[in-house]
Design brief:
With 431 residues, the protein is α/β, with parallel strands linked by helices. The protein has helices at residues 27-38, 53-64, 101-113, 133-141, 177-186, 205-216, 248-261, 283-292, 310-314, 339-349, 380-389, 417-430; strands at residues 7-9, 44-47, 68-72, 77-81, 93-96, 118-122, 145-147, 157-160, 167-172, 194-199, 228-231, 241-243, 299-302, 324-327, 353-356, 361-364, 372-374, 402-405. Helices cover 31% and strands 17% of the residues. Helix 4 (133-141) runs parallel beside helix 5 (177-186). The two termini are 25 Å apart. Bound molecules: shikimate-3-phosphate and phosphoenolpyruvate (PEP). Residues 16-419 form the Enolpyruvate transferase domain.
């Protein structure tokens, strides 16, 4: 794969999209499965795994913590072994989480649950601004010693581990459901039962994914009752082999492309809404409503539970038949970037009428302004979602009219996104 340029002009599709798109494995499932495999005793092979920056960070961290992670990118497998060597280092261990929210939250919980050792965890500058305090508070209530050498409640962290002691605690996971997922996954390793009382709202889809994957790895956690989880100390019993589902969020770009260029794509292995572990599969239902709406009427969609996919729709909203209102977005202001503000800025750059509120965006289509370069703010989803918009043949002559600044940010979850887009464009025009 040749390196992507600093600014990438997107070549419009000359023909409707056709063919098959092989999706990468799910980021959320790969990083959860790596952690859960590390908590087992026997070797575990993950197949269909995602190979990207976020999963590389997770695998590298687990190796730094002592276990073996063998990666075979050609076969898309990750094999976790030598779990007995975890946490055996006598010197402090440095763990780098980059901008990976999953790695950041899951590894913080894992290190705090370690029986011994000193762990220094840090990420990139933007990661130092992402919410951590709910998890830090909860882990401290369970006996963890966590020092924040910078700003209290944010990375970098220094953890002096001595295991988790159990007990009744409160957790505020309103800023990120990953804070709760992280705690749930390590809670069974505590020396006594843990009761987690949630304070504030939680987005449930990714928590359900966590609970269901934990069950596949041998630990059954009853669903929350009145916002309370009860977790008894239980040993993980991972399967020898575990298959990762294709990434439902990554699928959203390819599901959106036919709305932009026509045609149809097949996405082998993608689970239909409600049939797999990923809530983002419900994006297909949003697209069905987009296609069913009467011209000129408002499309009003709550993306709170599937917010990673909101950019996929927002970026192509200039091409839709009426205004689009997208709600449920407040928490996305604290992700890779402030996604609400960034999306408003980029859509306005393209001439769109955008109303930005704390929790929502309302986009009324206006004629697209060509020859603009989309800023990506270090956020993979800006690069990919506007990459799909650029496939629209705005001038009708196949000439690029939209460019993406720093397209390589897609490496966070989908390193070959733009080469795959080229391939699909080629295959579509071959017919
Ligand atoms: O648990 C997970 O795997 C994820 C949870 C969501 O994060 P928040 O709960 O922080 O919104 C989502 O945006 C992220 O991409 C993956
Ligand atoms: C929010 C996202 O990632 P993270 O896992 O870093 O939170 C995302 O992938 O859209």
């Amino acid at each position: 794969m040749s390196p992507l340029p600093e600014v990438l002009p997107i070549v419009p599709f000359p023909a409707p999209a056709r063919g098959e798109v092989v999706l990468p494995g799910s980021k959320s499932l790969t990083n959860r499965a790596l952690l859960l495999a590390a908590l087992g005793r026997e070797p575990v092979t993950l197949s269909g795994a995602l190979f990207s920056e976020d999963t590389h960070l997770m695998a590298t961290a687990l190796r730094a913590l002592g276990c073996t992670v063998e990666a075979d990118e050609a076969a898309l497998t990750l094999r976790v072994a030598d779990q007995a060597k975890l946490f055996t280092a006598t010197a402090p261990v440095d763990v780098f989480v980059g901008l990976a929210g999953t790695a950041a939250r899951f590894l913080t919980a894992l290190c705090a649950a370690a029986p011994r050792g000193v762990y220094r965890i840090d990420g990139v500058e933007q990661m130092r601004k992402r919410p951590m305090s709910g998890l830090i508070d909860a882990l401290r209530q369970l006996g963890a010693e966590i020092i924040c050498p910078g700003e209290e409640g944010f990375f970098p962290l220094e953890i002096h581990a001595r295991g988790l002691r159990g007990g009744a605690i409160e957790l505020d996971a309103s800023a990120s459901s990953q804070l709760l997922s992280a705690l749930l996954m390590v809670a069974p390793t505590a020396t006594a039962p843990i009761d987690i009382q949630l304070v504030g709202q939680v987005r449930w889809t990714f928590v359900e994914m966590t609970r269901r994957l934990m069950a596949e790895f041998g630990v059954h956690v009853p669903a929350a009752s009145d916002g309370r989880f009860h977790l008894a100390p239980t040993a993980y019993a991972p399967p020898t082999d575990h298959v990762i589902e294709p990434d439902a969020t990554a699928a959203s770009y390819w599901q959106t492309l036919p709305l932009v260029v026509g045609g149809e794509l097949t996405l082998p292995g993608l689970r239909a809404p409600g049939t797999g572990l990923q809530g983002d599969a419900a994006y297909a239902e949003v697209l069905a409503r987009v296609q069913a709406r009467a011209t000129g009427t408002l499309l009003d969609e709550d993306f709170r539970e599937i917010s990673d996919t909101f950019l996929s729709l927002a970026a192509i909203s200039p091409l839709l038949d009426g205004p689009t209102r997208i709600t449920g977005l407040t928490h996305t202001r604290h992700q890779e970037t402030d996604r609400v503000a960034g999306m408003a800025t980029e859509l306005r750059r393209l001439g769109q009428d955008v109303i930005e509120e704390e929790d929502s965006l309302t986009i009324t289509p206006r004629p697209l302004v060509p020859d603009q370069t989309i800023e990506t703010y270090g956020d993979h989803r800006f690069a990919m979602s506007f990459g799909i918009l650029g496939c629209h043949d705005l001038r009708g002559d196949g000439s690029p009219w939209l460019s993406i600044h720093h397209p390589a940010v897609c490496a966070k979850t989908f390193p070959h996104f733009f080469s795959l887009l080229d391939h699909v464009r080629q295959k579509s025009s071959d017919r």
